[in-house]
Amino acid sequence: MGPRADSFLRLYMVPGMQHCDNGPGPDSFGQVGKLTFDDPQHSANAALEQWVEKGTAPSTIIASKYSAEDKHHATMTRPLCAYPQAAKYKGGGDINDAATFVCEARK
């Protein structure tokens, strides 16, 4: 599609989600049916709305993993990075916290 595709198209891979839900990785990021958050940082739906209405494209979206027992407290968070970037562990800190990851181009 060329270099301008980034102005109207983004792809966010969700490692560990499996097919549509569950799996070992974070699987809640404000997609339809899982509108836990209404802010663009944690919701793909809100990020899309902000992009269309305000022209601010999302660079990352934070995905969360909740335990079956507690749907209000995330046990894991990860940044979902716009392709071709991927989340890379910074090398220190809690591996279950999105803040310890950075979006970086794949090598």
Order of helices and strands: HEEEE
Main beta sheet, described? 2 strands, antiparallel
Major sheet strand order: 1-2
Share of helical residues: 10-25%
**Please, what is the average pLDDT?**
87
How many domains? The number is 1
Regions with little confidence, pLDDT below 50 for 5+ residues: none
The gross shape turns out to be globular
Radius of gyration: 14 Å
Distance between the termini: 21 Å
Structural class: alpha+beta
How would you describe what is shown here?
The chain is of the alpha+beta class. The protein has one domain (3-105). Helix content is 10%, strand content 23%. The protein contains one helix and four strands. The strands form two sheets. The chain has a two-stranded antiparallel ribbon. It has a two-stranded antiparallel sheet with strand order 3-4. It is globular. The mean pLDDT is 87.
